[in-house]
Amino acid sequence: MILAENPSVMSLEGTNTWILRAPDSDECIVIDPGPLDEGHLARVAQVPVAMTLISHRHFDHTEGGERFAELTGSPVHAVTPEHRHGGGTALSDGDVVEAAGLRVRVLATPGHTADSLSFVLEDDRSVLTADTILGRGTTVLDDVDGDLGDYLGSLRAYIELGPGYTVLPGHGAELPDLETIARGYLAHRRNGSTRCATRCAPSATMSRRDGSSNTSMRTSTSPCGERPRSR
Ligand SMILES: [Zn+2]
Q: CA-CA 20 to 30 A from 9: which of 61, 80, 136, 214?
């Protein structure tokens, strides 16, 4: 996991750029290139990149995508056409990506934004949750296309995965058990904190558009690069 140097109130320490690969693979899959920061992108590109997957459209996750495709000569896949680069194609719910010795299942988890995806690594029992579940604090819903009903549905989709999945979030540190966290969030939202979630969304969105982000590196089972910072 490489942390981008774009800390802010909303991006916590910055955006996590995740680098995934099987222990015996020479290549990796990158989740969210993060901001357009040459130093950050160069650190991420140290391992040959098979492809990059975009979790959702927010600037702090996607801004560096076009440059990263150029740097690595590899495709950037995304839901939204404007975030696809280097021959990248569409991602949608249920897609299975096989690369870098890994099998990654695309799980649509709308709510934070309409296009939010999570990426499930069944073999590693982990889920990249992007901004749908953060390393700490609660996420906010985008004022343009965030939706509380969708968000609650996404929490239920996490619960349906079952116990024992590690959370690899888009900001903040990893967390031990997605099912437990999703159940807690669901109870929290049901208990009247929905008003706060809705009311807080505009300022959160603005902060996020400032473009903070970080890169984090993780392999599915072994590290595949340096850790410029500990988190
Ligand atoms: Zn976001």
A: 80
Helix (H, G, I), strand (E, B) or coil at 206: helix
Which whole number is the average pLDDT over 199-208? 31
Per residue in 164-181, pLDDT tens?
999 999 999 999 999 999
* Ligand 1 geometric centre to CA of 140 (Å): 9
Give residue 120 CA to ligand 1 midpoint distance, Å. Answer: 18
Provide mean pLDDT across the span 129-138.
Answer: 92
CATH ID of 2-209, from 3.30.450.20, 3.30.450.40, 3.60.15.10, 2.130.10.10: 3.60.15.10
Distance 164 CA to ligand 1 centre (A): 25
Ligand 1 center to residue 169 CA distance, Å? 11
CB atoms within 10 A of CB 64: 29
What residues are neighbours of ligand 1 (ion), with CB under 5 Å?
58, 131
Could you tell me how many residues make up the chain?
231
DSSP code of 192? I
- Bridging pattern class, strands 16-20 and 28-31: antiparallel
Does residue 206 surpass a pLDDT of 90? no
Residue 210, token pair as written in the block? 């400032």
Location of structure tokens 């929905």 = 194
What separation in Å is there between the alpha carbon of 24 and the centre of ligand 1?
Answer: 32
